Amino acid sequence: MSKRVIDFEKLEELLKQHDGQMLVFEHGEPRLVILDPKRYPNLFLDKEVNPSGLEEKVRGAKILVTGGAGYIGSVAVENLLASGYDVVVLDNLSSGKASNVSCPLIVGDIGDPKTLDKLFSEHQIDAVMHFAAFVKVEESVKFPEKYFQNNVVNSLALLNSMLKHGVKKLIFSSSAAVYGQPSSIPITEKHPCFPTNPYGESKLMFEKIIQWYSKVHGISAVILRYFNAAGASISGNLGEIREDVTHLIPKVLQVAAQQEEELRIFGQDYPTFDGTAVRDYVHVDDLALAHILALDKLTKDQGVFTYNIGTGTGYSVNQVVDCIMEQTGKMIMTEHAPRREGDPASLVADASLAFSELGFAAQYSDLPTIVDTAWSWHKKRFRL
Length: 384
Ligand code: UFG
Description:
This protein is α/β, with parallel strands linked by helices. Helices cover 36% and strands 18% of the residues.
């Protein structure tokens, strides 16, 4: 096993850059933790609070959040509002819920130039966070046209409208799906991108469009490649709502809640330590934090910056099931099923670039916290 060399000077430098950060060691590994003063008020009593090292000029900036009524977007909005940003949400409510949004909500499509013209004329937008997209891998294989239309063509209409109205900062929700079957783990941002489904391809296509628009039109962007988004908001107000649940953690929770009889484990013959597939689960509040740090980055630097947003730690399907049994105290019946087509054995991020350039370190992405928040949300939602 190779020995990791810890660059203490770099860590110290990072600590100086952002107020409210703390260095902790977990299993001998250093991690920077960014403390939220709302959650740890006692630690900040006599200090002027500046939670994520945001520059004062950023406060009060107006952010357009597309897809802000959806699972990840709504948690980002909650965090933006708490950090002092002004927020407007554009969402067509195809999967999001208006009740998730506690700021001005414009119900409309990202691909509708009239809606966009009106929005950008009425609101002085400083930056756009673009979450709105179709996200189901299996569906994308059946209906690629739907994915290219919404995730590429409609996103392009948004980008063109931004340009027309002089808005040049974008944070784009991309995905680890752009890498396809990884040839090495952990996956760095330099890993070749060969998506294995139209969903991943649509995200990669838009990443490329952003690169060209930066070169030609001077757009600046942070592209965040999410690994497996999971958990419910720490506030307890927001969580994952989907009509047809396919993601592992909500699926297992349905079994725990006796809404499903058993969990089908897709593949037990993967070349992983226990034969089941390994994923890097990131808590949704950590994803939101990455967006706020990305905004901060765009106030200082111009260009396009691409980061993996993960933890660097992978958990197998069996580990997730065991953790859920432990946290909920419920028995989970499982059944062996064949591998799901296109599923890689292991997807784990090398998250060091986001750590060194954005100061991003996950705070809530340990499996028990993810499961605990998701289970509380599930119980609240289904009145269990
Ligand atoms: N799984 C099961 N049984 C289930 C559901 C899932 O065994 O009922 C397994 C899957 O086969 C996979 C793992 O659990 O091995 C995780 O599956 P998810 O469906 O929760 O997530 P994916 O890794 O397939 O995909 C997610 C997002 C994609 C994104 C990808 C990036 O849905 O959009 O993470 O890491 F691209």
